[in-house]
Amino acid sequence: MDEFQIETAQNVGINQNVANIGDRMLGYLIDSAVILFYTICAILLMVALDLDFGDLWALYLLVSLPAFLYYVLLETFLNGKTVGKYVMRTRVVKLDGSKPGFANYFIRWLLRILDVVLTSGGGAVLVILLRGNGQRIGDIAAGTTVISERETVTINDTIVRDIPIDYVPTYSQVTVLKDSDIQTIKNLYDEAIFKGNHNIILTLHNRLVKVMAVEPKEKPIDFVAKVIKDYNYYTQNM
After folding, report:
1. Which of 19-28, 84-93, 228-237 has the lowest average pLDDT?
2. What distance in Å separates the CA atoms of residue 132 and residue 140, rounded to the nearest whole number?
3. pTM score
4. Who contacts 33 (Cβ-Cβ below 8 Å, separation ≥6)?
5. Of 222, 1, 221, 31, nearest in space to 121 by CA
6. How far is CA 13 from CA 6, 8, 20, 78, in A?
7. d(CA 187, CA 206)
8. Which residues contact 206 (CB under 8 A, 6 or more apart)?
9. How far apart are CA 154 and CA 157, in angstroms?
């Protein structure tokens, strides 16, 4: 699954998973089924009303409007989701991670005619594969993409750390922390190491010193790493 990084207003980088082609196609099929079901129900209702042709045509235009505007309406009022996106756990966002406005959704919907309808979805698939960040033509024009909200967890995302057999812990005070605390600390630490963000390391150091009531002799980066290892040692040997 491809990833792209967004920067928040606080200059904190957040990795987002781009929705894969399979999820987007299944979501599209679900949305198409919803639109078809609505259209059939609307037609059956109009037939049951037994109106003359003029009134029937005007009513058809009226009741078919929600189906015609399905994507732009639902994405606007459901925070970037349609029924298909909700089921597949995907969502439309701007490239900076913020919530799109009506104009963004409208542009995506308008250009859907070009890269989905006229090409039966082939144009959208081709552009998405070429761009690599989940953008079809409508997304490029609107400055949006579609992300996956599924959580992907690997062994590297857990609090588990390999501890040597002869490892000697330093801080027994780590037992005041919880698994969720260490998971958060580890995630922030790994991200800070990857980006070379010393400020996050220093913040973690200061917070741990206060919570654990210790006076470490190590450098902040070494101290935080030691805390993670010590916690693993004590939890694995309890």
Report:
1. 228-237
2. 12
3. 0.61
4. none
5. 31
6. 6, 6, 21, 25
7. 17
8. none
9. 5
